[in-house]
From TrEMBL:
<dbReference type="Pfam" id="PF00005">
    <property type="entry name" value="ABC_tran"/>
</dbReference>
<keyword id="KW-0067">ATP-binding</keyword>
<keyword id="KW-0547">Nucleotide-binding</keyword>
<dbReference type="InterPro" id="IPR017871">
    <property type="entry name" value="ABC_transporter-like_CS"/>
</dbReference>
<dbReference type="GO" id="GO:0016887">
    <property type="term" value="F:ATP hydrolysis activity"/>
</dbReference>
<keyword id="KW-0813">Transport</keyword>
<feature type="domain" description="ABC transporter">
    <location>
        <begin position="5"/>
        <end position="237"/>
    </location>
</feature>
<dbReference type="InterPro" id="IPR027417">
    <property type="entry name" value="P-loop_NTPase"/>
</dbReference>
<protein>
    <submittedName>
        <fullName>Manganese transporter</fullName>
    </submittedName>
</protein>
<dbReference type="InterPro" id="IPR050153">
    <property type="entry name" value="Metal_Ion_Import_ABC"/>
</dbReference>
<dbReference type="InterPro" id="IPR003439">
    <property type="entry name" value="ABC_transporter-like_ATP-bd"/>
</dbReference>
<dbReference type="GO" id="GO:0005524">
    <property type="term" value="F:ATP binding"/>
</dbReference>
<dbReference type="InterPro" id="IPR003593">
    <property type="entry name" value="AAA+_ATPase"/>
</dbReference>
<comment type="similarity">
    <text>Belongs to the ABC transporter superfamily.</text>
</comment>
Length: 247
């Protein structure tokens, strides 16, 4: 079976403190995978290190059997909403057109074809009527759908999304999870940082449980056992209290 992502002994530190320590995981293609763990567990750091947006201390990452330099075009990333400058003067359509850039040849500018492709992606997320709006004028759920459309426009094989359901309405959440499941059904691999444990088994095929180290990776229902979760969330009492309902 083809490995969509292979992380080997990856460690990342900030100012001498490990945020991710000796993480290893191999993920088969065609899975929808949730990354769960308490606040500050290193979930965002793991995604950024996979994408080489931040340097790692050591370790290796392969995407579809190749290093990132050779597979960058095949990876789409949707950062946490809080990391995006929503005041940046750009409209919805142009934001999505940016997603087509990795597939444009050198010296080529996006043209009619790319705009059509971007509009089609906006239609898939139900945002075609907002094409000319400034991104800052949208609700949280609409912003998240636009950034998902941008990722779709990239036509990637591996999708990494950081907390896409935080601060959005129920309708947008249903639309987004529906699209992520259809990507998975089309053979794509989707990794989603997620912290609402109540939906973890309903949404995901597999879960990565992380708290600095990867504590578990496997079938969602099996990872979501009270014992493993309590260990991961130890010290994070509000979360631990939710566990009975969650799994
Ligand atoms: P999560 O996404 O699971 O909430 P993060 O990956 O954002 O966790 O953070 C992991 C740890 O690294 C936390 O202790 C956080 O405070 C620290 N951290 C994250 N980003 C930075 C940074 N840019 N500089 C210093 N420390 C950071
Ligand atoms: Mg985070």
């Amino acid at each position: 079976m083809q490995q969509a992502l292979r992380v080997e002994n990856l460690s990342v530190s900030y100012a001498g403190h490990y945020a991710v320590e000796d993480a290893s995981v191999s993920i088969e293609a065609g899975l929808l995978v949730g990354i769960i763990g308490p606040n500050g567990a290193g979930k965002s750091t793991l995604l950024k290190a996979i994408l080489e947006l931040i340097p790692s201390d050591h370790g290796r990452v392969e995407i579809c059997g190749r290093p990132l330099q050779q597979s960058r075009r095949t990876v789409a990333y949707v950062p946490q909403r809080s990391e995006i400058d929503w005041q940046f003067p750009i409209n919805v359509l142009d934001t999505v057109v940016l997603g087509t850039y990795p597939n444009l040849g050198w010296f080529n500018k996006p043209g009619r074809h790319e705009r059509q492709a971007a509009l089609e992606c906006l239609r898939r997320v139900g945002m075609q009527d907002f094409a000319q709006r400034q991104i800052g004028e949208l609700s949280g759920g609409q912003q998240q759908r636009v950034f998902l459309a941008r990722a779709l426009a990239q036509n990637a094989d591996l999708y990494l999304l950081d907390e896409p359901f935080v601060g959005i309405d129920a309708l947008s959440e249903r639309a987004i999870i529906g699209i992520l499941k259809s990507l998975r059904d089309a053979g794509k691999t989707v990794l989603v940082v997620h912290h609402d444990l109540s939906k973890a088994t309903e949404y995901f095929d597999r879960l990565i449980l992380i708290n600095k180290r990867i504590l578990n990776y496997g079938v969602a229902a099996e990872v979501c056992t009270a014992g493993a979760l309590t260990k991961a969330y130890l010290g994070d009492l509000p979360f631990t209290n939710q566990l009975g309902v969650a799994c």
